[in-house]
Design brief:
Elements lengths: L2 H27 L8 H30 L3 H24 L6 H21 L2 H6 L7 H29 L7 H27 L3 H28 L5 H20 L9
Helix pairs in contact: 1-2, 1-3, 1-4, 2-3, 2-8, 3-4, 3-7, 3-8, 6-7, 6-9, 7-8, 8-9
């Protein structure tokens, strides 16, 4: 592992965590900060508390572990950074401009650089060597295939329907474009490739699987919470499936890893 890049990634992730804490806490306290319509406003009202209660603590624990040379902790941190980049892209491009605009920019930039720097610091062959032959790589890969297929087919089908009929989606053209684009780019694509590589027990497959299942568990928790709080969501069962599937995948992969080779 490249220790200089690792150190940079941890420092950037620490700053990102502080800004996530500030953003989510102030978003909860200052009720009138958001000036969006009902669809986006409901999203922010759930997103901020879940980020504060779940993502920030997970990041804090992962940073503590990573600073103790834990490979598991470092990979968890990368997962939260991927979540942060994806999550704050929604705020940056989807929210009506507010006092937090520059904070959204900073969070997207810092989390993105921390994520990429962290990936570059990894000794991927050492990551692969840390995985026990008994680790459930194929079951996790199968789950990820399902995850990528469900989201991919849903967004592609809706996109084709809009293109062929010219009828705007129910949620509106702009929200649809933003959500579909981010999901296809930053969820469906890495999950699909990660599933293929994990099935082959590649080191990159393990890295992507852990990263994406951290992100998946957190974000599916947001969608599940929103469905429960606001009601009227026919996909609550699907969000619950993704929460449980990602948590079980993380547990299985983490349990099947040793910490050897962290500093190789």
């Amino acid at each position: 592992m490249n220790t200089d890049l690792r150190r940079i990634a941890l420092r950037l992730a620490s700053v990102t965590g502080i800004l996530m804490l500030v953003q989510s806490l102030t978003g909860i306290i200052f009720f009138d900060l958001y000036r969006d319509g009902s669809f986006a406003l409901q999203a922010w009202r759930i997103n901020d508390p879940v980020t504060l209660a779940v993502a920030v603590p997970v990041l804090a624990v992962s940073l503590i572990l990573a600073r103790r040379e834990s490979l598991r902790g470092f990979l968890l941190m990368l997962g939260v950074m991927q979540y942060a980049f994806y999550n704050y892209a929604f705020y940056l491009f989807g929210a009506v401009v507010n006092i937090h605009f520059l904070l959204y920019v900073s969070l997207a930039v810092l989390s993105g650089i921390a994520f990429l720097t962290g990936l570059l610091s990894l000794d991927v062959p050492a990551v692969r060597a840390s995985v026990s032959p008994k680790a459930p790589t194929k079951p996790v890969a199968a789950y990820m295939f399902v995850w990528a297929a469900v989201l991919g087919v849903a967004w592609v089908a809706q996109s084709l329907a809009v293109g062929l009929t010219g009828i705007a989606p129910e949620i509106g053209e702009e929200p649809f474009r933003l959500i579909a684009a981010l999901d296809l780019l930053f969820v469906v694509t890495p999950v699909a490739f990660g599933a293929v590589w994990l099935w082959k027990r590649s080191g990159w497959g393990l890295v992507i699987a852990i990263v994406m299942n951290v992100k998946g568990a957190i974000y599916a928790s947001i969608l599940l919470t929103a469905g429960i709080v606001w009601g009227g969501d026919d996909l609550i069962g699907l969000w619950a499936f993704f929460v449980v599937g990602s948590l079980l995948s993380l547990f299985g992969l983490m349990k099947g890893m040793s910490e050897r080779g962290v500093d190789a």
